[in-house]
Specification:
This protein is mainly beta. The strands form 6 sheets. Strands 16, 17, 19, 20, 22, 25 and 27 form a 7-stranded antiparallel beta sheet that branches. Strands 10, 11, 13, 14 and 15 form a 5-stranded antiparallel beta sheet that branches. It is rod-shaped and about 125 Å long. It comes from Chitinophaga parva.
Length: 408
């Protein structure tokens, strides 16, 4: 038994030596050309999304032997190459891959040295390529439905207002017509909520068209195929607070007095009106909570002739309606509600045919009650004066509670 075991041991040892000899021969064949060399790989590989294309980007390998890069995709069915122009890892290399279908791709990038040896692959996976499907899902940026626009009527400017975009909006073109009938285009940045349209021509249409990028640092910008129309921008409505100070309901006094008679705040008066309270007040009284008030001197002392209460302001071109509301009145009255160009009102005996007058309502004790509307049109920005020119006999009074300015 011992003799048999020794023979078996020698046999196994001989087989082992023979096997090692064959492996060494194979290893020598493998290393016959020297050590295996792999060119250096690229670093920090990424991409920039594009429209039916993409741009692959990376930092070059510092390996000076690298001569070019080979890029494969579609499971190696498609490929391209580019020369290596830098070996500085702080530089950025890139190549645009065009003519791609919309979808997701995986790319392999190989570094190739001057004798054709290849590095191991660097994978750039999940590369999104965008196109018509993505563009078809884009919408123009939404305008602010609650406050679509703000008006600067005096300057003729309009600020259009938009909501915050829910994607990466690079800008929105806003197309409008100015008062010279010139079509203008401005671009609202994606991080701004509104933009001013200077010298806007009211009654004309405003359209807008937005552009987006699918990802930060994208290669291409996508624009919505069609424009959208902004809500109609009009100046129609009450613009009293924009142009007229202390317009009534109630009217406020300018003096610090506490008695019935005072002077109206923000309105001009002539001396004929200031005929009450020892000529310290007039043109305003506490009646009706505060009103414009003309009255004969101390009620029965003397008539009040050619009395004026007026205010000047500058209006943009347009057609206006000015509503004047009468309160109490009695006695013998010659009353005129007047809109005139310039900064003053004509005297009562110079009203008929006066070229400065844009609109006038003339009334007496039989017709001055109620609300009267003065309509006038100015073709360009103009300073106008509105007010009352009144003559009264003794024991006569006339009151007004408010004025309202509307633009059509």
């Amino acid at each position: 038994m011992k003799h048999t075991f020794r023979n078996l041991s020698w046999l196994l040892f001989a087989v082992s030596i023979l096997g090692c000899s064959k492996k060494n021969e194979a290893y020598k064949d493998l290393l016959a050309g020297g050590e295996i060399y792999y060119p250096g790989i690229i670093q920090h590989a990424g991409y920039r999304a594009g429209n039916l294309r993409t741009m692959l980007v990376w930092n070059p390998s510092p390996d000076p032997k690298i001569a070019r890069y080979k890029i494969l995709w579609n499971n190696g069915q498609d490929s391209t190459t580019m020369n290596a122009t830098s070996h500085n890892p702080e530089d950025t290399a890139g190549i645009i891959i065009p003519n791609l279908a919309e979808g997701t791709y995986n790319f392999n990038v190989y570094s190739i040295d001057s004798v054709g040896r290849s590095s191991i692959a660097v994978n750039i996976n999940g590369v999104r390529v965008y196109g018509p499907k993505y563009q078809g899902g884009l919408f123009n940026r939404a305008y602010n439905a609650a406050t679509p626009y703000l008006l600067d009527l005096l300057q003729g400017n309009v600020r259009v207002q938009f909501n915050t975009p829910d994607s990466i909006n690079t800008g929105t073109k806003v197309i409008f017509t100015d008062n010279n009938d010139q079509v203008d285009t401005l671009v609202l940045p994606g991080d701004s909520s509104g933009i001013t349209l200077p010298n806007f021509k009211f009654g004309t249409q405003v359209t807008f068209q937005s552009s987006y990028i699918p990802q930060r640092n994208a290669l291409d910008t996508f624009t919505v195929a069609a424009t959208s129309t902004f809500p109609d921008i009009t100046r129609a409505g009450d613009v009293t607070a924009v142009f007229i100070k202390n317009a009534g309901n109630p009217f406020y006094r300018s003096d610090n007095g506490s008695g019935k008679w005072g002077l109206p705040k923000d309105w001009q008066v002539n001396t004929n009106v200031v005929n009450q309270n020892n000529d310290q007040g007039g043109g305003w009284s506490t009646d009706n909570g505060g009103c414009i008030h003309f009255e004969a001197k101390n009620w029965g002392d003397a008539p009040m002739l050619n009395g004026k209460v007026y205010q000047s302001f500058t209006l943009p071109a347009g057609t206006y309606d000015l509503d004047v509301t009468t309160a109490g009145y009695g006695g013998t009255i010659d009353a005129n509600e007047v809109v005139a160009t310039g900064t003053f009102l004509p005297d009562i005996d110079n009203l008929d045919g006066n070229a400065t007058i844009l609109a006038r309502y003339h009334g007496d004790q039989n017709s001055i009650g109620g609300t009267h509307t003065l309509t006038f049109t100015i073709p360009q920005q103009t300073t106008v004066t509105f007010g009352w020119v009144v003559s009264e006999q003794t024991y006569t009074y006339l009151q007004f509670t408010k004025v309202v300015l509307r633009i059509r």
